[in-house]
Design brief:
mainly alpha, Amino acid/polyamine transporter I
C-alpha cells in the first residue's frame, strides 16, 4: 500500500462520523429542543422522515464518490450535456451551497458564541469575532488536526450526556407513543418541521461526504461497502442523539408553564447534572458550533470549486477565497443582533428549502449508468429519492407562498 493510499484511507475512515458530527451542531440542539419544548412528540414524525431521508441521500453520495472518484459538484458538472442546463445547475449549486452555507454558518457561529458567553462575561458579538478567527485558522492550516478532533470528541460527550439524561429522567414512554400517533402538521408547527428536516438532512453534507470518500485509491467495491455500513451506523446514531435532545426538552418544558429560551435551554440536563447543567451544556454548544463552523465553509469550497470545473485544492487561492467568504458572511450574520435561538432556527429552515434542488441533482447523477456503473440507483432508491424531493419541494413551496 502506497503512502498516498494509506493517507486516503486514514482520511476516509471517519468520513461518515464527520458528517454525523456536522449535523449534530448547535442548530440540531436548538431545533430539537424547541420542537420538544413546544410540541412534544407530536412532530416526531418529521424527525423519523428526516433520518430515513438522510440515510437515503448520504448513501447515494457515498456510492457516487467511491464509484466515480469525484465529488457531487463535479458529477453535476458532467451530468448535463446541454450547456444551458449545465450553467443553470452550476448557478444553483453556487447559490444553494455558497449562499445557503453562509446562513448556516451564521447559526453555527451564533451557537458557539452563545455557549461561550454563558461561561464568561464576554458578549456574544465579541465571541463571534474570536470564533471566526479560530475557525479561519483551522481552515487555513487544515481541518483534521488535534483541535478539531478534540471538538468532535466534546460533541460526542455532549451527545452521550443527553442520552444518559433521558435514561435518568425516565420519560413517559406512554406519552411518547400517544403523541407520536397524533402527529401535527399545521401553521404552528410548520417552521419547526422544516427546521427539523433542514438540520438533519444538511445539503452541504452531500457534497462533503462524496468529496471525502472519493479520495480513496484502493478496492472500490470493498471501500463502498465499508463506507455504506459506516454511513448507516453514523446516521442512526445521529438520529438517536437528536431524539434524546427532543425527549429531554419534552420532559422539561412541554406541558409546563415554562417556555424555552436561551437562558434556560440547559435546564433539560438538570436531572443528570444538577447545578453543572448550564456549564456542561455551554461547552457542548461551543464544541458543536465550532466544529460545524469549520465543516460548512469547507464543504462550500468543495462544492463551488467542483461546480466551476476546478479541482478542489485546499491550498489554492480559489478554495480559500470561497471558505473565507462564507466564514466572513456567517460572522456578519451572527453579529447583527438576531436572537440566538431564532437565528439558528431560521438557518435550519433555510437548509430545508434548499434541499430538494440538491437532491434532484444527486438523483440525476446516480442514474447515469455509464458513469456510476454498478453503483447506479435501484428502483427502490429512486422511488425513495423522488418521494423526498416531492415532499421537501412541497414544504418549500408552502413556505414561500406563506410570505405573500
Amino acid at each position: 500500500m502506497t503512502q498516498s493510499t494509506s493517507a486516503s484511507k486514514s482520511e476516509n475512515r471517519y468520513a461518515a462520523w464527520l458528517v454525523a458530527a456536522a449535523f449534530i451542531g448547535p442548530g440540531t440542539v436548538t431545533t430539537a429542543s424547541i420542537a420538544g419544548a413546544q410540541f412534544g412528540y407530536h412532530v416526531l414524525w418529521a424527525l423519523c422522515f428526516s433520518i430515513v431521508a438522510t440515510w437515503v441521500l448520504q448513501d447515494m453520495a457515498v456510492r457516487l464518490g467511491v464509484s466515480t472518484k469525484q465529488g457531487l459538484a463535479e458529477a453535476i458538472q458532467q451530468a448535463f450535456q446541454n450547456r444551458g442546463l449545465r450553467l443553470a445547475a452550476v448557478a444553483l449549486v453556487i447559490a444553494a451551497i455558497g449562499i445557503g452555507n453562509a446562513a448556516y454558518e451564521g447559526g453555527n457561529i451564533t451557537g458557539a458564541a452563545l455557549g461561550l458567553s454563558q461561561l464568561t462575561n464576554m458578549s456574544i458579538p465579541l465571541w463571534v469575532m474570536c470564533l471566526s478567527v479560530i475557525a479561519g485558522v483551522l481552515l487555513w492550516f487544515g481541518q483534521s488536526g488535534l483541535i478539531e478532533r478534540v471538538l468532535v470528541g466534546l460533541v460526542g460527550v455532549m451527545s452521550l450526556i443527553f442520552i444518559v439524561t433521558v435514561i435518568v429522567a425516565k420519560p413517559d414512554i406512554g406519552a411518547l407513543f400517544t403523541q407520536a400517533l397524533a402527529p401535527r402538521f399545521d401553521s404552528a408547527t410548520f417552521t419547526v418541521v422544516l427546521a427539523l428536516i433542514g438540520t438533519t438532512i444538511v445539503p452541504y453534507n452531500l457534497f462533503l461526504h462524496a468529496s471525502l470518500v472519493s479520495r480513496y485509491e484502493g478496492d472500490s467495491e470493498a471501500e463502498m461497502q465499508r463506507q455504506r455500513r459506516s454511513n448507516s451506523i453514523a446516521i442512526l446514531a445521529g438520529g438517536l442523539i437528536t431524539l434524546a435532545i427532543m425527549t429531554t426538552a419534552t420532559a422539561t418544558f412541554f406541558g409546563s408553564d415554562k417556555s424555552l429560551d436561551a437562558s434556560n435551554i440547559a435546564s433539560q440536563l438538570s436531572p443528570l447534572l444538577g447545578d453543572m447543567a448550564a456549564n456542561v451544556f455551554a461547552i457542548g454548544l461551543f464544541a458543536a458550533g465550532l466544529t460545524s463552523a469549520v465543516t460548512a465553509p469547507l464543504a462550500a469550497s468543495y462544492a463551488v470549486c467542483g461546480a466551476l470545473g476546478r479541482k478542489p485544492q485546499p491550498q489554492s487561492t480559489l478554495f480559500r477565497s470561497i471558505w473565507l467568504t462564507v466564514l466572513v458572511t456567517g460572522a456578519i450574520v451572527a453579529s447583527v443582533g438576531f436572537k440566538p435561538l431564532t437565528a439558528m432556527l431560521f438557518a435550519q429552515a433555510t437548509n430545508g428549502m434548499l434541499l430538494p434542488f440538491i437532491a434532484i441533482f444527486l438523483l440525476v447523477a446516480m442514474n447515469q449508468r455509464q458513469r456510476v456503473e454498478q453503483a447506479q440507483n435501484s428502483l427502490l432508491m429512486n422511488a425513495l429519492g423522488l418521494t423526498i424531493v416531492l415532499f421537501t419541494l412541497a414544504l418549500g413551496a408552502r413556505k414561500v407562498l406563506g410570505v405573500f
